Structures are given as structure tokens and as C-alpha cells.
Amino acid sequence: MQQHARKIASENKRTSFKAFAAMAGTLVASASAHALDLNPGGDWQTRWDNTVKYSAGYRIGSPRAELTNGTGKANNDDGDRNFNRGLISNRIDLLSEFDIQKDGMGLRLSGAAWYDTVYNSGTANTSPGTSNNVNSPYNQFSGETRRIAGNNAEMLDWFVFNRHQLGDATLSYRLGQHSLIWGTTLFFGMNGIAKGMAPIDLYKLSIPGAQAKETTIPVPQLSGTLQLTDDTSVEAYYQFKYRPTRLHPAGSYLSSTDMLGDGAESIYAGPLKLKYAGMVKGSLPNNFGVALNTRSEWLDADLGFYAIRYNDTSTQVVTQASTGRYYLAVPNNVKSIGASISRLVGIANVGLEASMRFGQPLVAKSGTVVIPAGASAGWLASNVPYPTGRTAHLNLSTTIVTGASSMWDGASVVGELSANHLNSADRNADKVDTSLNKNSYGGRVVFTPTWYQVAPGLDVSLPLNLGWSFKGKSVIDTAFPFSGSPDHGGEFIVGLTGVYLNKWTANLSLITYLGNASTQPLLDRDYMRLSLQASF
Fold it and tell me: What is the CA radius of gyration of the chain?
């Protein structure tokens, strides 16, 4: 059996390499073309831009026994066991963007495609007794994990936009699939108003230093802004489709939960292995929100006030031992209100965002809740078996840009502190996991010194990125402030970035995880990452 599996893996690697080489050749050939202006000198501005990126990751150490063996590890070990020391990603990406506009009216289309040879090959997993795979062998990636992490293409933006003059006010709007987030949060969008406005792509968020506005998943919606004065505007949106947060696919390198995310197929519940039976969305009312933005001359600050209703993009695990199944339930009708303020303090741009949530799902005991014996998925669609409550959220961020010094030509500091608090449980309070913390807080700071024209046309920077969970094990969010909600743990990243002619970008980074094995599930997954990118 193992010999047969090794043969399959070998064949997959050869096939994957051929496909990868073909795609890489196509993209390299396209690199000689510049962005196309399809209507030069015309009234309609028409552009077609493409960005090509190659990236690779290399695991520095091997899986550690204390993180893969023992009670309770069977649902958290596949992402660790699937990779030995060595290559964890070998990927090429294409982002294509098309824009056409005239006098504030136009159309935008964008899409992405990628191929990763690692996820189109076999894994290093040697533990069939703990693998959560059902439809694939234990030493292969599941089909959905292979698709999402290894070989896929998707539309991103597709929307039309326009603007109209209404007396002294200006109305601008977008209709179609696009992203929209409010508030001032930089790194912790899932702890802010942004959480209820757009699903987050945690697979992209795993790129150290990625900001909230870079990691949202576009949703079909109508959004608009009514500009009343130079300083005051009203915004609103209404969404037509639900999309969940994209977790790390089950069994992928940074996945720490085998029963969640694309590619998840089962969960171990004591001696049972329950199969994934689908997502239950409930009544799924449409998401909507309104905002007021204004400026206070007295405070010399920009103010924002927000109110939204949404279906939570994070799902809840619900098991049913009698049928050997488990479901992912979508929490409906979560409500949130919030406010933000941003202003200059010396040379620092400081933003503060505070919000309250009502009906926020909470972590249940053992991470799951149970459907009553004899009930069906239909019962789950109209009932709430998991705990919910009222929660408070706070994000304090700053951005500082400085000029030249004796050590560098320029530098920036971007930082954020984030915290949440459980005020009260209002439904199924007896099911709340009381071993977790009602208060959690963490932060991230990125310091980037830059040297210009190190060589003709070449700028070099050295980003230093520290993320730290001062108090994790959150009862509100198992991914706050970072994946796995580590307690007194985090990550440190040091990188070297070169930009040539503002067109070619190269980066080499070392990512190391901090903390202890009992509360930091990624402690043994340090890795190096190389990326090469060009825009045309």
C-alpha cells in the first residue's frame, strides 16, 4: 500500500512539474508585454494591467511530537504532519485587472489564477489513524484543498460604477461584486466593523504584514456614498450573497484545524469519525449597513459612525453522533454598532475604532455543539444551539513615516493594538467554554527602514514585523489575535525587499513562531519565503 502511495506521489510530482513549467513559460512570455492602454487619447480611459508573481516556501524544521501526538491532537495535526523539512510551496500567481471609465462612470473586472506544485503532489503524512481525509488517501491532499491551495482561478471584482449630482450633493455608487470595509483597523479587521462587511481571506492574511484592506473577499452588493459637503458623507450597502471567511484549507501548511476550511472532510469525536455533511445557512437575511463620516474642526479629527447587520462569516461546528455527521452552521442576524476617530498626533497618524456586537457567536465547550437526537439539518436551520452574546471590540492603530537619518534614507512604523471583551452571554450561556478568556488582546508592529538608489533604479528595505498575543485563548474568536488564538505567543518576521524601477519586486523573509507548545499550534512551523513579482 505504501509503495503504491509513493508511486502515485511520484507520478503526481512529475505531472505537477510539467503543468507548472507550462504555466510559468506562458507567464514569463507575457512579461515582455506592458500594460495595455486600449484607447490612447480617447475619452474613455481603458487599461489592462497584469501582475505575475512567483513564490516559494521552505520549512526549516520537522514536526514536533508534542504538537502532533496525544489526546486532542487528531483534529489539529494534518497541516503539521503533511510536510517534512523542505519545500512547502512552489507557486505562481497571475492577477489581471481591466478598467474602463469616463467622467466617473465605468466598469471594473479583475481575476486571479494560481498553481502550486506542492499541493498537486502527495504529502509526507504517515499517520492514517489521525488523518481527517475521507475521500482521499491519508497521504494525499483532499480534493478541495488541492483546488484552493494548488490549482484554481477565480473572478474577483466585477462591477459598474457611476455618479450623479443631486443639487449640492454628489451620489456615487457601485453595483456588482466588490469589497467594502469601514473603520480604521489595519491588521485586525476581524476584530472591527470590517468583520461584518466582508469575508476575510485568511490564506492571504498569512502573508506577514498584510493589511485588512488587502485581504477581503469581494461580495455581490450595491454600495453608495452621498457626499453632502466637503467634510460630511453618508454611506450604505446592501449585499446579495453570503460568502464565508476563507480559512487555511484543511491540511495546508498553516492550517491548525483539520475539520474547518475548504477541504475539511471529517472530525474526530471520541471514538467516532464524523463526516462533513455541509453548511447550514439558516434564514440568511441580506447583510446591510449605514455609516456617517464627518470632520470635527474642534477635535481636528475625522469621525465615523457605523451600524451594520450581518450573517457571520465564521461558521460554528455542530455534530450529530447518531448519524455520524457534522455540519457548519452560519450564525444569522449579528448586529454591530461602532465609531472611529483618526487624526494627526505630531508626526503620527492615529486611528481608534470601538464597536459593540449583539448576537456574536461564542466558543462552545469542546469547540462544538450537538444536534438533538432525531433532529435533522432542517432543525439546525431554524434553531441556535451554539452560545451567543454581547461583546466589545477596540482597535488602536498608528502610522508614522520619517525622513532620512544617519542609518537609512527613510523609514516607516505601522502598529496596532487590538482587544475584545465578552460582556454577557445571552443564548445558551451554559454551553460557553469557560476555560477560555473573556478578555483577549494582542498587537502587531512593522518597522521598515528603506535605502533609495542602492544601485541605479534599485530601492532596498528591511521590514521587521512582530505580532504578539498578550492574552489569547479568546472565547469570542479562536483566530484572535492570530490563528489558533495563542496565549503569550506570536510571530516574528524579518525580510529583505528590493524594488527595481518601481516595477520588479523581490522579497526574502524568515518567519518564526513564538510561544509554547500548549497554546501556540504553529510553534514548529518556522519557514522561509521567497517571492518575485512584476507588474505589466
Answer: 24
Residue whose cell numbers read 498575543: 469
Length of the chain, please?
536
CA atoms of 388 and 484, how far apart (whole Å): 20
- CA–CA gap between residue 14 and residue 16 (Å, rounded): 5
Q: What is the pLDDT of residue 33?
A: 41
56 DSSP β-pair partners? 90, 530
Do strands 489-500 and 334-345 pair parallel, antiparallel, or not at all (unpaired)?
Answer: unpaired
Name the one residue in this structure whose C-alpha cell is 452571554: 425
Strand partners, 415: 398, 445
- Give percent of the chain above pLDDT 70: 91
The per-residue pLDDT for 214 is 54
Burial readout 178-204 (b: 16 or more C-beta within 10 A, e: otherwise): bbbbbbbbbbbbbbbbbbbbbbbbbbe
Cα–Cα distance, 428 to 425 (Å, whole number):
8
| Most confident region among 44-48, 171-175, 375-379 by mean pLDDT | 171-175
User: Nearest 5°: phi and psi at 65?
Assistant: -60, -40
User: How far are the Cα atoms of 47, 94, 123, 533 from residue 536, in angstroms, in the given order?
Assistant: 11, 11, 35, 10
Q: The cell 469621525 sits on which residue?
A: 303
pLDDT at 223 (0 to 100)? 98
Residue-averaged pLDDT of the chain: 90
Q: How many CA atoms lie within 13 A of 95 on its CB side?
A: 9
Which helix (H) or strand (E) is 21 found in, with range? helix 2-30
Task: Copy the grid coordinates of residue 237.
Answer: 450597502
Q: Residue 124: how many CA atoms within 13 Å on its side-chain side?
A: 17
β-partners of residue 437 are 474
Q: Which residue pairs, CB below 8 angstroms and at least 24 apart, start in 13-19? A: 13/117, 13/121, 13/122, 15/120, 16/117, 16/120, 16/121, 17/117, 19/115, 19/117, 19/120, 19/151
194: CB partners within 8 A, 6+ apart: 181, 182, 183, 185, 212, 216
Give tens-digit pLDDT for 199-235: 988 876 665 434 444 578 999 999 999 999 999 999 9
Sequence-separated (6 or more) residues with CB below 8 Å from residue 434: 365, 475
pLDDT digits (tens, 9 = 90+) for 366-377: 888 998 888 888
Q: Write down the residue that cell numbers 468583520 correspond to.
A: 195
| Per-residue pLDDT at 5 exceeds 80 | no
pTM: 0.89
Question: Residue 506: which H helix or E strand, with range?
Answer: strand 504-514
| Cβ neighbours of residue 150 closer than 8 Å, sequence gap 6 or more | 115, 116, 117, 118, 119, 120, 141
